[in-house]
Amino acid sequence: MGKVVMNGSVSVDGFIADENDQPGPLFDWLTSGDIPLDPSGVLKVSQTSYDHTRPYWDQIGVTIVGRHVFDMTDGWDGEPPGGIDHVVVVTHRPAPEGWDPAAPFHFVDGVEAAMAKAQELAGDRIVEVAAGDVGGQVLAAGLVDEVRMDVAPVVFGSGKRYFGSVHAQHLLADPDVVIQGDRVLHLSYRVRR
């Protein structure tokens, strides 16, 4: 099995969106450079951010998200983001009406079921878990191996928390990656067990 990585862009004070679910400048780093990050050419980052992000993206087999993120993005029109093979959506509801059953999206109830499905699909590739409520639930369940953060230079003051509603202490190792990009600081921590 591949490792499980919780990942997301985050404000300096720990939020992945403001009170209105808007990311504001959190993703500015994805359009602040000259190096195309994906084939669309829309995402352009600094060489430093490319060297950090692209190899990681290439290792992701599956991303786990919550239904809220799925609905906000309109299910990425049935195409997993960033060239990822599959998306597992944690939800208590079925797929949306008219959803193409051949799209590589899998709707499951609960984080344990989501992780089982994601690991089955990912094989030895990375299972990425989106930061936020679902990511916090996966962390609280002891299923996260690594926490990656792309820290943007902004303070929100309030909003949607990176770790969701986690209320218990979770120890992380010292950061094993600290990389300064353009408009971002890339950090990576192993989860201590």
UniProtKB/TrEMBL annotation:
The Bacterial bifunctional deaminase-reductase C-terminal domain, residue ranges: 111-170
Top-level taxon: Bacteria
InterPro entries reported in the protein's UniProt record: DHFR-like_dom_sf, RibDG_C
GO MF, one annotated term: 5-amino-6-(5-phosphoribosylamino)uracil reductase activity
Coiled coil spans: none
Any single GO BP term: riboflavin biosynthetic process
One Pfam entry name: RibD_C
SUPFAM superfamilies: Dihydrofolate reductase-like
Protein name: Dihydrofolate reductase
Naturally occurring in which organism (per UniProt): Allocatelliglobosispora scoriae
